[in-house]
Write a structure and sequence with these properties.
single chain, about 400 residues, mainly alpha, two-stranded antiparallel ribbon, two-stranded parallel sheet
């Protein structure tokens, strides 16, 4: 029986993942202590004891003195226990007017706010990098593709700026998400409010929240702000993955458009001529992982009755994983494209012998009044003639073209 209880206790513990929230837990607890003092629920001396004790707990954690695996249910219980060891029974008063249910939401919102801002910073760096690349390659001609077939000539700048627009929208999504994240739950105990007369506006301001949610039950019951965050992460990963796919193709001998720095590739012991784009491939692979986090979070919440349920503890695995994955992928991706070499000559050759200006020739014939149903046949003959003579269309003489 005791063994089973221990197994169940370990099963229910989330300390292995939520220990990452210790900084947010301590910041929120200090703000809560000051709020209790302001509302005359504890004395100034008790508040000072709590804040000093929490500072010492934080120092111990950062010095690696705390083993998060030993007997802690979650980060809240852990900090509470460590604080009691520092300052004694007065630590118990710190929980007046709050519960673990709203503590965890405050911590999660604080954590996601920081992650959201960090991702926004990385996206801005990516946009700057793409803008610099575009400015540098306004005259770098390359094939534009549809269906992975050469379609029309474009510039590398134009191609880069297509991704620029995608990532710019991603940045806007994270900006909107920040407003959804940065609202404090009203610390209404488990769900129905608190018996303590408290004013939490100063606490919200101290923690940098834009406002306070109006309903305590809603405050503890939903994680839609987290779902919105992972959705934005998923879309960003999708854009990164598509860009990586282009880079993987462009790096192949068949394309030869770019060369990725050795820092981001690996060789093969069996096939030494190969240069594998492992970082780009892993970003492409980790996209599926972030999609999985999204499905995980939506599925956990889809059938939960109001208000708090223990299932919600599972949210942190998805949120922490998605945040860490996107941040790592963005950082490496920016470094990778900043260091890649562009083979302008090969891009131009591919455009030149792709006969992609056939469209422009067709438009020219339309302007000259040639019947539309004849144009397709004429262009086909011109392209075959050009291929047979080993010339691009633009190098054919007018006399060559007139025979068609």
């Amino acid at each position: 029986g005791d063994e089973m209880k221990q197994t169940a206790k370990e099963f229910m513990s989330s300390i292995g993942v939520d220990n990452m929230l210790y900084d947010e837990e301590i910041a929120a607890s200090k703000a809560h202590a000051r709020m209790l003092r302001q509302n005359k629920l504890i004395s100034g001396e008790e508040c000072d004891q709590m804040v000093d004790g929490l500072d010492h707990v934080q120092a111990d954690i950062e010095a690696g003195k705390v083993d998060f695996k030993v007997g802690y249910d979650d980060i809240h219980g852990c900090i509470e226990q460590l604080l009691e060891e520092k300052i004694g029974p007065v630590a118990g008063k710190l929980n007046w007017g709050r519960s673990v249910n709203d503590q965890v939401v405050i911590d999660t919102r604080l954590f996601l706010r920081a992650e959201n801002e960090s991702i926004m910073g990385s996206l801005k760096e990516l946009l700057d990098t793409l803008e610099s690349l575009a400015k540098e390659h306004v005259n770098t001609i390359m094939p534009g593709y549809s269906h992975l077939q050469r379609a029309q000539p474009v510039t590398l700048a134009y191609h880069m700026l297509a991704y620029y627009q995608m990532f710019k929208r991603d940045l806007r999504r994270f900006e909107n998400c920040l407003a959804c994240i940065n609202v404090m739950p009203p610390e209404g105990g488990a769900l129905a409010g608190s018996i303590f007369e408290t004013d939490r506006k100063k606490m919200a301001k101290e923690l940098g929240f834009d406002g306070i949610l109006p309903n305590a039950m809603d405050g503890v019951a939903d994680r839609d702000f987290g779902m919105e965050f992972i959705n934005d992460c998923s879309i960003t990963m999708m854009h990164l993955s598509r860009f990586c796919e282009d880079m993987i193709l462009w790096s192949s001998v068949e394309f030869g458009f770019i060369e990725i720095d050795d820092t981001f590739t690996t060789g093969s012991r069996v096939l030494p001529q190969k240069k594998n784009l492992d970082v780009a491939e892993l970003i492409r692979g980790k996209t599926g992982r972030v999609y999985g986090d999204m499905i995980n979070l939506l599925t956990v919440f889809k059938g939960l009755p109001m208000s708090y349920n223990r299932d919600m503890q599972e949210d942190k695995y998805a949120l922490l994983d998605a945040a860490n994955t996107v941040e790592a992928c963005l950082t490496l991706f920016v470094e990778m494209i900043q260091s890649m070499k562009i083979n302008r000559g090969q891009m131009q050759r591919a455009a030149k012998y792709g006969y992609m200006n056939a469209t422009e020739l067709a438009e020219y014939l339309m302007e000259k009044g040639v019947e539309p149903d004849r144009i397709g046949e004429i262009i086909s003959k011109v392209v075959v003639y050009a291929i047979n003579h080993g010339k691009p269309i633009e190098e054919l003489w007018l006399d060559d073209l007139k025979q068609f």
